[in-house]
Amino acid sequence: MRLSLLFRLRLFLSRQRSRVAAYIGLLLIAALLAVLVPLAFQRAVDDGLTVGATKTALTWTGVALALGLFATGAGAVANAMGAEIGARVSEALRRSQFDTITAQPYAFHAQSKAGAVISRLTRSPSAAQNLIQSVFGTLVGQGVLLILAVAMLARFSVTAFVFVLAMAPLFMIPFRVFNKRLFAAGREQTAATSEAEHFLTERLNVEGAVTRHLLHSHPAESTAFAAHAARIRAALVHRNGSFYGSQFVTSALAALGVAGAYAAGALQGASVGQVVAMAALVKLVYDPLVLISIQGLGLSGGIIELERIFAVLDLPRHQLAGRRELDAAARRLRFEQVWFRHPAPGTATLPDLAADAPTVGEDDWAVADLTFALVPGRTTALVGPSGAGKTTTALLAVGVHQPTEGRITINDVDLADLSPAARHRAVGMVTQDVFVLHASLRDNLRLARPEATDAHIVEALRHAQLATLIDTLPQGLDTTVGDRGFRLSGGERQRLSLARLFLADPDIVILDEATAHLDTLTEAALHEAMTRHLTGRTMLVIAHRTSTIENADQTIRLDHGRIAVIHHNRWARSQQNLV
């Protein structure tokens, strides 16, 4: 399983084929030069440490120094190139994960812990980058050095060669003993860190700060975070204990190997230079064995994160929209025997991303058997008690939810068959909870229409009764509105959402409590602006205030997700008969 994960990286490494080839080439050059250094020192000792051979000693010492410098330089360039390859692969993994996550249905995000998802996009690829560098820089680079050093050692002493080969398998003992412990500790550390990141994501924002001050929850939150920190610390201690235990064993084995090389040289009557070269070569054999053994254990963290990355990439990419376009402006929106039930908790996400949620029964339909049509070019009011399914119905109409059964059509085309752009042009919605970026006012508005000019933006703000806001902000449209728009009032945030709607200019408009946070005068002015700007649009309005829906051409009352009654005025009934 772990080898298969590394094998899957080939798809990402193949895009870096030329860099990988150059990287491996530099590793080979560095290894070859490093093996030649002991041979140069042998000549310096055997040929240079005699009377009158000072020049020879200095020459071979200079050769050894030059070889060492070139080997170090090639290794440094290789490491830099390996870091770039790892960074590029890490970037590709992040982008692939992001595309996969954003292609998931609403249920995935509703069931997932935001902090855990963010960790998957930020921390996991970085660990994968370290894994890539370890695989190439240590396992490949040191592996080549090991082979060359063993081959060169055979030239000097068969005894030392046999002793080194006999010792080599012992370096697998720490790996076998500590491997499972490291993976277990690594998974616990990853899980603990993910939980802590989710805890911080929920609390370290503007809304979390306000809640802390209102409820005086500082002590409780400090205690809760201390528990998360303690769990991370315990996992780190466990993992580090296993890691450094293995490091001690491998280092002790390496020291024993070097001593054996000196003994072999003494027994066979080797020259001083040969003993020096043999000792250096043995070190070049055991250093890679130590590094490979330790790095093999160190790979556990990267492999765990790689498992988490590919778990995301293996999520099915649900087709949230088709490719069809509308031949004319959208006017007719119809529900045809639509049933919708939220997926059971944990079924739409990964187990380690899942947030706690109540169990959903098989008969727990959010909406059931909805069949109705909006009045083309007119207003339909959707009313009912809290929990009746009004917002769920609106989210179905814009494609955030997809029907479990039945279908929704716009101009007789199934909503699921429309392209994202066509759906965006056809239907737009203002929600109860306004999403505001920690960005400029301009960037927040351009979410609805990226190509919008400042003139378009100012016009949309004027329709939303927000034109005067620009004059009060220090940098006008360039003013950053803060985390979740904390620099704006609740009413201003709601009107910002309406300005986005005006900017997007959809054919069908859905308003879900769009004026709930506004005072009476602002609401009246905004209704006048909407009446003037949205005349002739097909509208679905959800509201509790009678003033918002008293002039609706059709009223649909929901009760427990089902239609209780549909009321048409005389004009609306005549229009219904025409569609």
**What's the rounded overall pLDDT mean?**
82
The helix-strand sequence is HHHHHHHHHHHEEEHEEHEHHHHEHEHEEH
Major sheet: size, sense and barrel closure? 6 strands, mixed
Number of domains as seen in the coordinates? 2
**Main β-sheet, spatial strand arrangement:** 6-7-8-3-9-10
Q: Give the uncertain stretches in residue-range form.
A: none
Number of distinct helices? 20
Number of strands: 10
Main location: membrane
Protein name: ATP-binding cassette subfamily B protein
Transmembrane segments: 20-41, 57-78, 131-154, 160-178
Domain ABC transmembrane type-1: 21-301
Structural commentary:
The protein has 579 residues and is α/β, with parallel strands linked by helices. It folds into two domains: 2-313, ABC transporter type 1, transmembrane domain (ABC transporter transmembrane region fold, Up-down Bundle), CATH 1.20.1560.10; 333-350 and 360-576, 3-Layer(aba) Sandwich (Rossmann fold), CATH 3.40.50.300. Helices cover 63% and strands 9% of the residues. The protein contains 20 helices and ten strands. The protein has helices at 2-8, 10-13, 17-48, 54-102, 106-111, 114-156, 158-167, 172-203, 206-215, 218-267, 272-313, 390-397, 420-426, 441-446, 454-463, 467-472, 490-504, 520-533, 546-549, 570-576; strands spanning 333-340, 367-373, 379-383, 405-410, 413-414, 427-430, 508-512, 538-542, 554-559, 562-568. The strands form two sheets. The chain has a six-stranded mixed sheet, sandwiched between helices. A four-stranded antiparallel sheet has the order 2-1-4-5, covered by helices on one side. A hairpin with a 2-residue loop joins strand 9 and strand 10 (562-568). The longest helix has 50 residues, at 218-267. The radius of gyration is 34 Å and the shape is elongated. The two termini are 58 Å apart. The model has no long low-confidence stretch (mean pLDDT 82). It is found in: Cell membrane. This is ATP-binding cassette subfamily B protein.
